[in-house]
Specification:
mainly alpha, 217 residues, rod-shaped, disordered C terminus
Length: 217
């Protein structure tokens, strides 16, 4: 721990900025990871259960299941169930509208990691330039009596900020790529579920105007 703080102190004030954005990036990554994982887990079994209930025309029960298990997938299914008595075009519009609401919510904060990946090396470069500028000022002060050993600290500061900046950028870029992949997988699930629910509800018995609730418990 003492070594870590000594490195931060040796890197100068820019190191505190780098440390701050690295903590922010880590917190965002963990929060989005759990959120997207929760939205993706058990999608197949959940949809299969809802499908079996809908096929029995127990729509109230299906809606209750969606209410008790809030997620982007359940919200898409719920929008389809609430419009079961509408024409197929209206049903499609309802599902598409629900998807347009859910997708930005899933993508929220992921782009911030890309910003961290771009800003971190720039902050590292800024720290390096400040260190070089300090070296020149010190050279002007010392004049012909300058000793190269006295400038080791400035060189260390320049290297430390650059190394930390590039390291944070690499980690942030990998985190962004991973989360974007999870996001795309969840969007694919939403498209798949929306299409299947539209087909399922549209292909139910069209002879009656309403889909009665089953008396089975």
């Amino acid at each position: 721990m003492n070594l870590d703080f000594s490195v931060i102190e040796q890197g100068g004030p820019i190191m505190w900025l780098l440390l701050t954005i690295s903590v922010v990036g880590f917190v965002l990554f963990v929060e989005r990871l759990f959120f997207l994982h929760k939205g993706h887990i058990n999608t197949g079994s959940f949809v299969e259960g809802i499908t079996n209930v809908v096929k029995k025309r127990r729509l109230v029960e299906a809606l209750t299941i969606c209410e008790e298990n809030p997620s982007p997938i359940s919200n898409i299914i719920k929008s389809a169930l609430l419009n079961y008595d509408q024409p197929k075009e209206r049903l499609f519009d309802a599902v598409q509208t629900a998807a347009l609401v859910e997708i930005p919510y899933l993508q929220r904060r992921i782009g911030t990691l890309a910003v961290v990946a771009r800003v971190a090396p720039l902050l590292g470069l800024l720290g390096t330039l400040l260190s070089i500028m300090s070296t020149f000022y010190q050279l002007q002060t010392d004049g012909p009596y300058a000793n190269s050993a006295d400038y080791a600290g400035f060189m260390a500061q320049a290297l430390i900020t650059t190394i930390f900046g590039v390291g944070i950028a690499i980690m942030a870029q990998l985190a962004h790529h991973f989360l974007h992949g999870r996001f795309r997988a969840l969007v694919h699930d939403i498209e798949w579920v929306g299409h299947d629910m539209i087909q399922l509800i549209a292909n139910l018995d069209d002879e009656s105007d309403e889909i009665p609730e089953s008396k089975e418990s």
